[in-house]
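Exercise 3.2. Students should predict the tertiary structure of the chain below and write it as structure tokens, then compare their answer with the key that follows.

Predict this chain's 3D structure.
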Amino acid sequence: MADRQDEPANGWQVTVVQLTARRLRLLALSAGFLAGACGTMIGLACLVSPAVAAVGRVTIVSAGTPRTAILIEHRRLKKGRRPAIIVLRAARKQGVRLRRSLSLEEMARTSGAVLVYPDPLSGHWGNASGPEANRDIHFVRELIAKLVGHGIANPNKLFLAGIGSGGTLALRLACEGKPRFAGVAVLASSLPSGLAASCLPPSPVPLLMISGAPDSTVAHQDGPETLPQETGGLLPVDKTLGLFGKAAGCGGGMTRTVYPGKEIHSGARAYLDKLNNCTVPVEAIQIEGGGHAAGVPSEAGAEVGLTNGDVNTAKLVWEFFRPLAS
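Answer key:
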């Protein structure tokens, strides 16, 4: 069945995908996880039954360049702004492939949250600083503004998840506080060391950082690390936590506990490091015995995705977001 494309309007174009049975099997992570969708936001007719969601590709013009994102809407018939989770993928990780390996859609279904997967230009996000990174920051901000302006996203319930270089971009957005995020989760990444002095969140930002050990991408604590050339040196996770902990008024150090084993299997162990006395949660999960192979995806786009037999990192992210979305 052919896709349908709306004409551009105010810099906003949506291609709604009518899913065949085969495509549903490829894209859906469980039967019936998609909810119905009517296009009242952009004048689209109802294309699918209430048992199926609207899966579309949004196009906006940002800095004179067309930019795209995959948009997944649940409970389209339930009008009103909903929580929105923006997922910034790792370099070279295709959006459709990420969606197949990511179970956030299934988990977010019950909340009616909108899932958004922005596409980086040329398959990668810009460097930690410089014109390309600024271009990407403006794109994400403009995309979110469109989602809010069209009555899709609740501006008070915006969530950001970043993987690899997408995590670096997510932290930059969180540092600047525009827009204000209700929660941020970062996987296999940290803040570039050159941006530490300028990271001054204007308000508390709930933050979860997930990293593997051993992991050659980002260190959990002070020590030597080998990092992707694209992003330069990254701060150890605990240093990035400290920057956001300061904005959250944390005090009294950090508490480490063994993370409950229900999400950890096959011999992998995880520890939860939580800053004390914070106004919002600021915490990190370190997965030992796994590194990238235990559910924290690599910048190379390996097929381990966000879920494998050892660790369901997507569920860890959702468990962090869920109370913040209520």
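Discussion points: The chain has seven helices and twelve strands. The two ends are 37 Å apart (CA to CA).
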